[in-house]
Amino acid sequence: MPIKRVTFKILRDKPNHIDPPRFQEFTIEVDPDTSVLDALEQIRLEQDKTLMYRHSCHHSSCGTCACKINGEEKLACITRIGDLEADKIALTPLEGFKPIGDLVVDMTRFYEDLSEDWSYLRKSEEVKSVPRLVGGSRVSRFENCIECGACVSACPVTEKNAAFLGPSVLAALNCELQKSPHKEKDLMALAGSTRGQHLCERALNCSRVCPTGVYPARHIADLRRMLKKDN
Protein backbone atom coordinates (compact mmCIF):
# COMPACT_ATOMS: atom_id res chain seq x y z
CA MET A 1 0.00 0.00 0.00
CA PRO A 2 1.45 3.40 -0.98
CA ILE A 3 2.78 5.63 1.79
CA LYS A 4 1.31 9.11 1.88
CA ARG A 5 2.84 12.25 3.36
CA VAL A 6 0.17 14.16 5.28
CA THR A 7 0.25 17.39 7.28
CA PHE A 8 -2.02 17.70 10.30
CA LYS A 9 -3.04 21.21 11.26
CA ILE A 10 -4.13 20.87 14.91
CA LEU A 11 -5.61 23.60 17.08
CA ARG A 12 -3.42 23.75 20.19
CA ASP A 13 -4.91 25.18 23.35
CA LYS A 14 -3.47 24.95 26.84
CA PRO A 15 -4.44 27.61 29.40
CA ASN A 16 -1.34 29.46 30.66
CA HIS A 17 0.87 27.53 28.21
CA ILE A 18 -0.56 27.86 24.69
CA ASP A 19 -2.72 30.90 25.09
CA PRO A 20 -4.39 32.19 22.94
CA PRO A 21 -5.10 28.98 20.97
CA ARG A 22 -3.20 28.58 17.71
CA PHE A 23 -2.72 26.01 14.98
CA GLN A 24 0.37 23.86 14.87
CA GLU A 25 1.36 21.65 11.94
CA PHE A 26 2.78 18.13 12.10
CA THR A 27 3.82 16.19 9.00
CA ILE A 28 3.96 12.38 9.06
CA GLU A 29 4.01 9.50 6.59
CA VAL A 30 1.05 7.11 6.74
CA ASP A 31 -0.74 4.62 4.52
CA PRO A 32 -4.31 5.47 3.38
CA ASP A 33 -5.85 2.94 5.78
CA THR A 34 -4.36 4.69 8.82
CA SER A 35 -7.04 6.25 11.00
CA VAL A 36 -6.87 9.83 12.20
CA LEU A 37 -6.61 8.50 15.75
CA ASP A 38 -3.62 6.32 14.86
CA ALA A 39 -2.03 9.35 13.21
CA LEU A 40 -2.55 11.33 16.44
CA GLU A 41 -0.90 8.51 18.37
CA GLN A 42 2.06 8.64 16.00
CA ILE A 43 2.39 12.41 16.35
CA ARG A 44 2.25 12.22 20.13
CA LEU A 45 4.82 9.41 20.32
CA GLU A 46 7.24 10.80 17.75
CA GLN A 47 6.87 14.58 17.75
CA ASP A 48 4.98 16.09 20.70
CA LYS A 49 4.16 14.22 23.90
CA THR A 50 2.05 17.13 25.15
CA LEU A 51 -0.61 16.70 22.46
CA MET A 52 -4.00 16.19 24.14
CA TYR A 53 -6.90 14.12 22.75
CA ARG A 54 -9.23 11.45 24.09
CA HIS A 55 -9.53 7.82 23.03
CA SER A 56 -10.47 4.47 24.45
CA CYS A 57 -12.00 1.70 22.33
CA HIS A 58 -10.50 2.41 18.87
CA HIS A 59 -13.61 0.95 17.16
CA SER A 60 -16.41 3.53 17.44
CA SER A 61 -18.00 2.19 20.61
CA CYS A 62 -16.99 4.78 23.23
CA GLY A 63 -17.33 8.08 21.35
CA THR A 64 -14.47 9.72 23.24
CA CYS A 65 -12.33 10.55 20.18
CA ALA A 66 -14.95 12.75 18.49
CA CYS A 67 -13.61 16.02 17.12
CA LYS A 68 -13.94 18.18 14.02
CA ILE A 69 -11.97 16.81 11.09
CA ASN A 70 -11.69 19.24 8.19
CA GLY A 71 -14.64 21.12 9.67
CA GLU A 72 -16.99 18.18 10.22
CA GLU A 73 -17.72 16.23 13.39
CA LYS A 74 -16.33 12.69 13.12
CA LEU A 75 -14.87 9.88 15.21
CA ALA A 76 -11.10 9.94 14.77
CA CYS A 77 -10.87 6.17 15.30
CA ILE A 78 -12.88 5.21 12.19
CA THR A 79 -11.97 8.11 9.90
CA ARG A 80 -9.35 6.87 7.46
CA ILE A 81 -6.73 9.19 5.97
CA GLY A 82 -7.46 7.84 2.49
CA ASP A 83 -11.16 8.68 2.76
CA LEU A 84 -10.39 12.33 3.46
CA GLU A 85 -8.59 12.72 0.12
CA ALA A 86 -6.49 15.61 1.40
CA ASP A 87 -2.79 16.22 1.98
CA LYS A 88 -3.59 18.63 4.84
CA ILE A 89 -6.04 17.67 7.58
CA ALA A 90 -7.34 20.22 10.10
CA LEU A 91 -8.32 19.01 13.56
CA THR A 92 -10.27 21.15 16.03
CA PRO A 93 -12.25 20.31 19.18
CA LEU A 94 -16.02 19.92 19.25
CA GLU A 95 -18.00 23.17 19.30
CA GLY A 96 -20.27 24.22 22.15
CA PHE A 97 -18.19 22.70 24.94
CA LYS A 98 -15.70 24.33 27.28
CA PRO A 99 -12.16 23.61 26.02
CA ILE A 100 -9.77 21.79 28.33
CA GLY A 101 -6.74 21.41 26.09
CA ASP A 102 -6.09 20.85 22.37
CA LEU A 103 -8.81 18.43 21.16
CA VAL A 104 -10.18 17.70 24.65
CA VAL A 105 -13.36 19.42 25.83
CA ASP A 106 -15.39 19.34 29.04
CA MET A 107 -18.40 17.08 28.34
CA THR A 108 -20.30 18.10 31.49
CA ARG A 109 -22.87 20.03 29.46
CA PHE A 110 -23.72 16.90 27.47
CA TYR A 111 -24.83 14.99 30.57
CA GLU A 112 -26.55 17.76 32.54
CA ASP A 113 -30.04 17.08 31.15
CA LEU A 114 -29.78 13.31 30.69
CA SER A 115 -31.80 11.93 33.58
CA GLU A 116 -30.33 9.10 35.62
CA ASP A 117 -33.81 7.59 35.63
CA TRP A 118 -33.74 7.06 31.84
CA SER A 119 -32.71 3.58 30.77
CA TYR A 120 -29.73 2.96 28.51
CA LEU A 121 -31.13 -0.44 27.60
CA ARG A 122 -33.78 -1.39 25.07
CA LYS A 123 -35.19 -4.55 23.61
CA SER A 124 -32.79 -5.96 21.05
CA GLU A 125 -33.79 -6.74 17.50
CA GLU A 126 -33.83 -10.39 16.48
CA VAL A 127 -30.58 -11.26 14.73
CA LYS A 128 -31.01 -14.43 12.67
CA SER A 129 -27.30 -15.22 12.65
CA VAL A 130 -27.17 -15.27 16.46
CA PRO A 131 -28.83 -18.25 18.22
CA ARG A 132 -31.38 -17.42 20.92
CA LEU A 133 -30.08 -17.83 24.45
CA VAL A 134 -31.24 -20.96 26.21
CA GLY A 135 -34.09 -20.10 28.56
CA GLY A 136 -34.22 -16.52 27.34
CA SER A 137 -37.19 -15.04 25.55
CA ARG A 138 -35.86 -11.49 25.38
CA VAL A 139 -32.45 -9.93 24.84
CA SER A 140 -31.56 -6.35 25.78
CA ARG A 141 -28.90 -4.15 24.27
CA PHE A 142 -27.56 -0.65 24.78
CA GLU A 143 -29.04 2.30 22.91
CA ASN A 144 -27.23 3.28 19.70
CA CYS A 145 -26.10 6.62 21.12
CA ILE A 146 -22.45 6.45 22.21
CA GLU A 147 -22.55 9.95 23.74
CA CYS A 148 -19.80 11.32 21.52
CA GLY A 149 -21.25 14.86 21.46
CA ALA A 150 -20.99 15.22 17.69
CA CYS A 151 -24.66 16.13 17.31
CA VAL A 152 -24.43 18.86 19.94
CA SER A 153 -21.35 20.32 18.27
CA ALA A 154 -22.98 20.34 14.84
CA CYS A 155 -26.28 21.83 16.02
CA PRO A 156 -26.55 25.56 15.12
CA VAL A 157 -28.92 26.18 18.03
CA THR A 158 -26.79 24.84 20.89
CA GLU A 159 -24.02 27.23 19.90
CA LYS A 160 -26.20 30.33 20.30
CA ASN A 161 -28.75 29.16 22.88
CA ALA A 162 -27.30 27.31 25.86
CA ALA A 163 -30.81 26.73 27.23
CA PHE A 164 -31.72 24.34 24.39
CA LEU A 165 -31.91 20.74 25.61
CA GLY A 166 -30.13 19.71 22.44
CA PRO A 167 -30.47 16.85 19.95
CA SER A 168 -28.94 14.15 22.14
CA VAL A 169 -31.24 14.81 25.10
CA LEU A 170 -34.37 15.05 22.95
CA ALA A 171 -33.49 11.81 21.16
CA ALA A 172 -32.94 10.08 24.49
CA LEU A 173 -36.20 11.54 25.79
CA ASN A 174 -38.13 10.11 22.84
CA CYS A 175 -36.52 6.70 23.34
CA GLU A 176 -37.49 6.78 27.01
CA LEU A 177 -41.03 7.74 26.06
CA GLN A 178 -41.31 4.60 23.93
CA LYS A 179 -39.94 2.38 26.71
CA SER A 180 -41.82 4.00 29.62
CA PRO A 181 -45.24 5.24 28.46
CA HIS A 182 -46.23 5.77 32.11
CA LYS A 183 -43.80 8.70 32.15
CA GLU A 184 -45.48 10.35 29.17
CA LYS A 185 -46.84 13.39 31.01
CA ASP A 186 -43.49 14.44 32.47
CA LEU A 187 -41.49 13.60 29.36
CA MET A 188 -43.81 15.48 27.01
CA ALA A 189 -43.82 18.45 29.37
CA LEU A 190 -40.04 18.59 29.08
CA ALA A 191 -40.11 18.15 25.30
CA GLY A 192 -42.62 20.99 25.01
CA SER A 193 -40.93 23.30 27.50
CA THR A 194 -39.21 26.59 26.70
CA ARG A 195 -35.96 24.58 26.37
CA GLY A 196 -37.50 21.88 24.19
CA GLN A 197 -38.15 20.89 20.59
CA HIS A 198 -39.56 24.23 19.41
CA LEU A 199 -36.04 25.69 19.48
CA CYS A 200 -34.87 23.18 16.88
CA GLU A 201 -34.26 24.90 13.52
CA ARG A 202 -34.50 21.67 11.47
CA ALA A 203 -30.96 22.01 10.14
CA LEU A 204 -30.58 18.19 10.29
CA ASN A 205 -26.86 18.56 11.07
CA CYS A 206 -27.28 16.32 14.12
CA SER A 207 -28.48 13.37 12.05
CA ARG A 208 -25.90 14.00 9.36
CA VAL A 209 -22.91 13.70 11.71
CA CYS A 210 -24.20 10.94 14.02
CA PRO A 211 -21.76 8.02 13.64
CA THR A 212 -24.20 5.37 14.88
CA GLY A 213 -27.43 6.20 13.05
CA VAL A 214 -29.43 7.60 15.95
CA TYR A 215 -30.86 10.33 13.67
CA PRO A 216 -31.78 12.81 16.46
CA ALA A 217 -33.72 15.00 14.01
CA ARG A 218 -36.16 12.14 13.44
CA HIS A 219 -36.76 11.82 17.19
CA ILE A 220 -37.32 15.58 17.48
CA ALA A 221 -39.82 15.40 14.60
CA ASP A 222 -41.65 12.59 16.43
CA LEU A 223 -41.90 14.71 19.57
CA ARG A 224 -43.12 17.68 17.56
CA ARG A 225 -45.90 15.60 15.97
CA MET A 226 -46.99 14.20 19.35
CA LEU A 227 -47.12 17.67 20.88
CA LYS A 228 -49.22 19.01 18.00
CA LYS A 229 -51.56 16.05 18.33
CA ASP A 230 -52.04 16.73 22.03
CA ASN A 231 -52.85 20.36 21.32
Structural class, by secondary structure, is alpha+beta
Number of strands: 9
Backbone shape: globular
User: In CATH's first tier, which class of the largest domain applies?
Assistant: Mainly Alpha
Please report the number of helical segments: 9
CATH superfamily of the largest domain: Alpha-helical ferredoxin
Q: Assess the beta-strand content as a share of residues.
A: 15-25%
What is the H/E string? EEHEEHEEEHEEHHHHHH
The CATH topology of the largest domain turns out to be Fumarate Reductase Iron-sulfur Protein, Chain B, domain 2
What's the main sheet like?
5 strands, mixed
CATH architecture of the largest domain: Orthogonal Bundle
- Indicate how many domains the architecture comprises: 2
Radius of gyration over all CA atoms, rounded? 20 Å
What do these coordinates show?
This protein has two domains: 4-106, Ubiquitin-like (UB roll), CATH 3.10.20; 108-230, Fumarate Reductase Iron-sulfur Protein, Chain B, domain 2. The strands form three sheets. The chain has a five-stranded mixed beta sheet. A two-stranded antiparallel ribbon has the order 6-7. A two-stranded antiparallel sheet has the order 8-9. The chain has helices spanning 36-46, 81-84, 108-111, 150-154, 156-160, 167-179, 184-191, 205-209, 216-230; strands spanning 4-14, 18-30, 66-69, 72-75, 88-92, 98-101, 104-106, 121-123, 140-142. Helix 6 (167-179) packs across helix 9 (216-230). The longest helix is centred in the C-terminal third of the chain and has 15 residues, at 216-230. The protein has 231 residues and is of the alpha+beta class. 30% of the residues lie in helices and 22% in strands.
